[in-house]
Description:
Blueprint: H1 8-14, E1 20-25, H2 39-54, E2 58-59, H3 82-98, E3 103-108, H4 113-129, E4 134-139, H5 140-150, H6 162-171, H7 213-236
Parallel strand pairs: 1-2, 1-3, 3-4
Protein name: Creatininase
Family: Belongs to the creatininase superfamily.
Pfam families: Creatininase
Amino acid sequence: MLMENITSKEFEELKKDTKTVIIPIGSIEAHGPHLPLATDLYTIYEICKLIAKKIKVLVAPPLYYGLCRSTKPLPGTLSLKGEVLKALVFNLLSEFYRNGFKNFFILSGHAGGTHIAYLVDTAEAFIELHKDTKIFVADIFQLLKPVLEELNIPESDSHAGEWETSLVFYFKPELVKEGAFEDYPKFPKFRIVEDKEKYWSSGIWGNPLKASAEKGKILAEKLTEILIKEIKTLEEEGV
Ligand SMILES: [Zn+2]
């Protein structure tokens, strides 16, 4: 069930047989000339909607924003500070806990390492305080790894490339624009550089020219299956 569409009374009813809350988290960031700024939110939220059609789960209203490092100087990227992201997600977990929920899936459409590290740190802080809860934290790219392998999509394809463009082609074809090309960043190893656009100006990390709606459908369906399995495992396991 999508929480944004139900009433307070329906929420109260749903709690009787719904044990898990999914919190979808996206980002607002440059995704090349061809994909929308909210790509990371759209992909993960649409997957959550597919899950909610198949099993009893509460999908929280999504968080559009995340922490974006590499694309920060590119036009349209809006990045949260790590402390802000942590405080916000911690606050949301506390509110769901106060409403009686103890199983949480924090699913991110944005796969940035620092962003994910903050989400993991948030979950760590939360379970330390609430030992009766179970929390799953993952990003879409990590979760899709076995499917990417099956489809022969290389590991170097990670952002606005083949898999991500395929998902947007499948979920929101009207939002895919012209101008895609293959590109990869050239960041110097281990260096923290301020002028990131010098090393990565396109916002593309992979090959979007190989993307298709058919591949997007396979990716979406397989990821839905993977997550339903994870949700069932978490719900069946005792605290
Ligand atoms: Zn993305």
